[in-house]
Amino acid sequence: MNGLPTVLAEHTGSGRRELEILVAKDNPWFEGHFPGHAILPGVVQIGWAVHYAVALQDCPSTPLVLEQVKFKRPILPGARLTLRLSRAADSIQLRYEYCDAQHSYSSGILNFTNSK
């Protein structure tokens, strides 16, 4: 996936990974979204979470269902955030959240199964 953020650090724990990321001011995903007031598109935020879930959490390549997706604050050029990826040991549902020390920017659940 082109236009990924810069990973500054990575922390792991039981069923959990945290990536400290920097969203470059010149990231190509900001082009045209929106002129004069750039924000990172929601579909890109989900795409990055899927990318790192597959690369780091050994998940299948495509989630079948997105659940509880919430966009709470816009992610602006130059943002320095933490991307949290977590799942229970017996689950292939993965929760993601973009946050900093003060705020949650967006979150959701990537469900890699079709059972509900």
Beta-strand portion reads 35-45%
Shape: globular
How many structural domains can be distinguished in the coordinates?
1
DSSP E strands, number = 6
Average predicted confidence as pLDDT: 89
CATH class assignment: Alpha Beta
Radius of gyration: 14 Å
Secondary-structure element pattern, one letter each: EEHEEEE
Question: What is the makeup of the main sheet?
Answer: 6 strands, antiparallel
* Share in helix: 10-25%
CATH homologous superfamily (4th level) name? Hotdog Thioesterase
**Structure class:** mainly beta
| N-to-C CA distance | 29 Å
| Spatial order of the strands forming the largest sheet | 1-2-4-5-6-3
At CATH level 3, the topology is: Thiol Ester Dehydrase, Chain A
Q: Give the low-pLDDT segments.
A: none
